[in-house]
UniProtKB/TrEMBL annotation:
PANTHER family (UniProt xref): BTB DOMAIN-CONTAINING PROTEIN-RELATED (PTHR24410:SF23), HL07962P-RELATED (PTHR24410)
Protein name in the entry: BTB domain-containing protein
Superkingdom assignment: Eukaryota
Pfam entry (one): BTB
Length: 474
């Protein structure tokens, strides 16, 4: 029998961290008044961090005599770009494998993220990134510009970059009204303006671009914002500054009145071929041919309390059997039924949902993050039963309300739809009274896996919530 005593090992190593006598590395963290020396052990640093394994080589460090220590030739190392209070947390992780981010501020966790990336502590880096997303969302929104500026300098931080951009796209007002907006890096601004899901009026996108461009030019920023007083050189400077962004503005989404009042005065900063095509659009309603200026829109819209719109796009892609970025239609998911609002009787469900055509159903168990669902490509029947044989129907599950990595889906080809069980998907998932039943009637391993039956043929539970949506396309 292999016995493990990890807790004792962690405790003993933490004592080494506090041992001021037995060390061979002196690391200076921070600088000036915010500098602190840490006495640590090279073997532990090398074993835990690939960065330190290289950094503690003879080429990266210096040695000095330490008259206050039993040992001479202490290795000296300096890291002025890391805060001492951040490094204390990182050292505890290196020595013990333990870290508690719930007691730390968002700013400090961001510092841990940056430092752990530099020190090649992947597990700590991943943990800090996930914690910021899951537990510091409010702080991120309140500090969105400095957070963006930081995470876009870290190539490995794609998950947090996507989270920040999606948060801004869903509610961009907090960003565009922020005093920090003019200091937004151009790469971040470009990423935002090129997105189809940026939830902003196009004239506001244009105004933001002009505002940002002016602030990048000191001479213009110090002048009156009245463009009628600008010189040709001023216009030329602004044109050069925003030239790469102008093709991202969807001018056809701007009303004629706003175009005349707010865009036309800046005609000199817009490439002539774009301005001519847009003008032609306003006069003749002819869409531009050489520039990508189609309006922004979300291909899916859903008012769900269980999933985010991005998951609705994935469901739409399963319906079309296409990638979610290449949908050929726009999808509208209209709420027909919500158990918390409409009750759980089959009569209430039938009143809301029967005969509505293709529908999406979503289910959430109590005390679980997982979302289960099904797409019924036919109808919930009026009559006693209907044989279910639509090969386009499917069931699925998401690990949480925004899971895009670990979802599962399986198309189900046969079963029965009855009118006496309320919410029903081929008798594989159905509602009877206040209970939801998961039932593997076809003994399908895929169904068992998606519904988490754990070896059972069926289970029943009282759901936290059930939602059903009618699906329409344009």
């Amino acid at each position: 029998m292999n016995s493990k005593f990890h807790s004792d090992l962690s405790k003993d190593l933490s004592l080494m961290l506090n041992d001021k006598e037995d060390y061979n590395v002196m690391i200076q963290i921070g600088e000036n008044h915010n500098m602190k020396e840490f006495r640590v052990h090279s073997n532990i640093l090398r074993a835990r961090s690939p960065y330190f394994k290289s950094a503690l080589s003879a080429k990266w460090t210096t040695k000095r005599n330490n008259n206050n220590s039993v040992k001479n030739n202490i290795i000296e190392f300096k890291k002025p770009n890391i805060e001492p209070n951040v490094f204390e947390i990182i050292l505890k992780f290196i020595y013990t494998g333990e870290v508690d981010l719930y007691r730390q501020s968002g700013e400090k966790i961001l510092g841990i993220l940056v430092a752990s990336d530099e020190l090649l502590l992947k597990k700590l880096f991943d943990h800090a990134q996930d914690h910021l997303i899951e537990s510091q969302s409010i702080w991120i929104k309140q500090n969105i510009v400095p957070v963006l500026r930081t995470v876009f300098k870290i190539p490995n931080c794609g998950k947090l970059q996507d989270y920040c951009l999606e948060s801004i796209c869903a509610n961009p007002q907090s960003l565009i009204t922020s005093k920090d907006f003019p200091s937004l890096d151009k790469d971040i601004l470009y990423n935002l303006l090129e997105r189809d899901d940026l939830n902003i009026e196009e004239i506001d996108a244009w105004n933001c671009l002009i505002k940002w461009g002016i602030e990048q030019i000191p001479e213009l920023g110090s002048k009156n914002n009245d463009e009628t007083e600008w010189s040709e050189d001023d216009y030329e400077a602004l044109k050069e500054t925003i030239s790469q962004f102008v093709p991202l503005i969807r001018f056809v989404g701007i009303s004629p009145a706003d175009f005349y009042d707010k865009v036309r005065p800046y005609k000199a900063v817009i490439p002539s071929h774009i301005y001519e095509e847009v003008t032609k659009f306003y006069y003749k309603k002819a869409l531009p041919k050489t520039t990508i200026l189609l309006p922004r829109y979300e291909k899916t819209q859903i008012e769900s309390k269980l999933i985010k719109p991005k998951l609705a796009e994935i469901i739409a892609s399963w319906i079309e059997r296409k990638d979610d970025k290449n949908l050929s239609k726009n999808y509208q998911f209209d709420l027909l039924y919500r158990s918390n609002r409409d009750g759980t009787s089959y009569k209430s469900f039938r009143l809301k949902c029967k005969g509505q055509g293709p529908c999406l159903g979503l289910i959430k168990m109590k005390n679980k993050k997982k979302i289960y669902g099904c797409y019924n490509a036919r109808n919930f029947p009026y009559h006693s039963f209907d044989y279910f044989s639509a090969s386009e129907s499917f069931l699925f599950c998401f690990e949480n309300n925004e899971d895009k990595q670990n979802m599962k889906m399986n198309r189900v080809k046969k079963g029965y739809l009855t009118s006496k069980k309320g919410f029903n998907f081929g008798d594989i998932i159905y509602m009877n009274g206040r209970y939801i039943y998961f039932n593997n009637i076809n003994d399908d391993d895929n169904v068992r896996n998606i519904l988490d039956l754990d070896g059972h043929q069926s289970i029943r539970f009282i759901p936290e919530s059930v939602e059903v949506f009618k699906i329409t396309t344009t």
